[in-house]
Amino acid sequence: MFKGLKPIIYHGREVWPLVEGGKGVSATNHASAGAWAAAGGIGTVSAVNADSYDSTGAIVEQVYNGKTRRERHEQLIRYSIAGAVEQVTRAHEISGGKGAININVLWEMGGAQEILHGVLERTKGMVHGVTCGAGMPYKLSEIAAQYGVSYLPIVSSGRAFRALWKRAYSKVADLLGAVVYEDPWLAGGHNGLSNAEDPLKPEDPYPRVKALRDVMREAGISDTVPIVMAGGVWYLRDWENWIDNPELGQIAFQYGTRPLLTQESPIPQAWKDRLLTLNEGDVLLHKFSPTGFYSSAVRNPFLQNLEARSARQIAFARDADDSKTHQLDVGVRGKNFWVSLTDLQRAREWFGAGFTEALRTPDDTLIFVTPEERKLIQTDQAECMGCLSHCGFSSWKDHDDFTTGYLADPRSFCIQKTLQAIAHGGDVEQNLMFAGHNAYNFKTDPFYSNGFVPTVKQLIDRILTGD
Questions:
Q1: How confident is the model at residue 4, as a pLDDT?
Q2: Whole-prediction pTM value?
């Protein structure tokens, strides 16, 4: 047992302070979450477009045949509730009553509140907590209170938690199960990097977590309510000075990337194999997500194509001015696109290289793509099923007038499509592959030598040694 590490009390249950990160679309399911709980930790079922099964045990394909986005959005909500209920039920059975089971949702996913109500209503007694980030989930505590479950907001600063506490959480203080600090420079998936923070200048998490604990203490929250350190956690020995540290109070640790490579992990074998090849720096912090948040994913050809697409970008004006003196004569249909001479020359070069279609962005710029890319982008936008509360790629919004009011952004992509694809056997090089920035450890950690893939129980036993 690693020095100083001991069980904690979570939702009235004694568990290891080890939390399985809830990884998006079907990358964390009943098998991994149930096994994590059975080993004495807090397992997390992803309630984001979770899988359902037919009578033969095969995964039910999520087909969206509604004629309108609103109809497809309603289909997505029904799929999401049914799938998450199925996953929680199976995880509960696998856990054997040990550990704890959480569900994870993104506050900015489409229909988040309706899905939470639908899942929690049908899984009473099986879910112990709800982890929620990707936005400011003010109503999380209110929803948790209706079902008697703990809630665990995901934040990246003490300031964010203070806002949540003052506005809503102070009214449901007794159900605050933990506060998850997700490091915006190290964690995989979507990150809470603010406009005041530099994506290229990572900050030490210790003072940020200490500041979060100070905010919690000011609010009268006991030090026994854990702060869960998420992002960059691999070896517990690297965090020895955090454990049993009176400055920080109770600390737990979340593992998001490392459980991907276990026998129970539901991700396809090609994804697991790819993880073993990553080098330091292969994970990119980027802002192509249609959520508008920064996120971290493997810099594969899919992500490289998005980088290249944005690089083929020029600013335009509808009327000539001092800086935009030339009419654009390639890629557009019409003469009211004025650009600089330098950008005109660049556009002509891209056109000559086959990027013959110019698409407008919401920022009064044009990107140049191939005819095939244009067709794919427009098809994906037209087939939007409303998986986000606000989508920059399709201009969808899940309430009021159902539009963000902004031009759809061709620099982004359909996130639901690519995450479903990679989780169900799609090409790992041509889809979005979320990962934390320490994923390169799979290649260097001797635990995984000779292609060894542990069970969840073997992984937790290893973590508990400090390695």
A1: 83
A2: 0.93
